[in-house]
Design brief:
By secondary structure, the protein is mainly alpha-helical. The chain has one domain: Hypothetical protein af1432 (Orthogonal Bundle), CATH 1.10.3210.10. The chain has 10 helices and no strands.
């Protein structure tokens, strides 16, 4: 990655940070960004679309109240109400991202591609582009990472057994690239081993 691109992404993280405070998503975004870079290296794709999209994908949670977020997210968040609230964060996130990217001087065509990914990063079932697949996969991989696994287990008040069973069932339906699926399987095996070794 060149210096100009690095500086641009650092600035986007800075712009996103206030919006990520509502759900404490800054660490999640950093980890998801790291996964996105790994996937870009293996799968190809346009870095100038994937990086801004993954950095800004969750800024829309700032539009919801804490009690609404609790209903919209997690192992126990199911049903029409959860889907509707989750959709709010996607739509509002797209609006916020468009404002941020416009101020940063991104061209309209690039903004449109990034915003379309953010607008359906959870709800969209059939990604239109490689870039959308990578953003969706990087976002989900957070839950399998050591940081994300522990963080989500605590945030959602779930046990290792509950979380491991939930994630195991989701691997085949969540991921769009084979490399992300393999990474998720490897990460989950590591989390299970940590439990056996007494680290969870």
């Amino acid at each position: 990655m060149n210096t100009k691109q690095t500086l641009l992404m650092q600035e986007l993280f800075k712009q996103a940070e206030p919006y990520l405070k509502m759900r404490n998503d800054f660490i999640h975004t950093r980890v998801a960004h790291d996964f996105a870079l790994m996937l870009l290296e293996k799968e190809g794709g346009k870095r100038n679309i994937v990086e801004p999209a993954i950095i800004l994908h969750d800024v829309g949670w700032s539009a919801l109240k804490p009690e609404d977020i609790a209903q919209a997210y997690g192992l126990k968040a199911t049903g029409a109400k959860a889907r509707q609230l989750n959709r709010v964060h996607e739509v509002q996130g797209a609006i916020i991202a468009q404002e941020i990217l416009s101020k940063q001087g991104y061209d309209k065509a690039t903004i449109h591609q990034i915003v379309q990914i953010i607008k359906r990063h959870d709800s969209g079932k059939n990604p239109d582009t490689t870039e959308e697949k990578l953003v969706k996969d990087a976002d989900k991989l957070w839950r399998f990472s050591k940081t994300g696994y522990h963080y989500e287990m605590q945030r959602q008040a779930t046990t290792h057994a509950e979380r491991c069973a939930f994630l195991s069932k989701k691997i085949n339906s969540w991921f769009f690239t084979q490399i992300a699926k393999a990474m998720a399987e490897n990460e989950l095996q590591a989390r299970d081993k940590e439990s056996d070794d007494g680290f969870l």
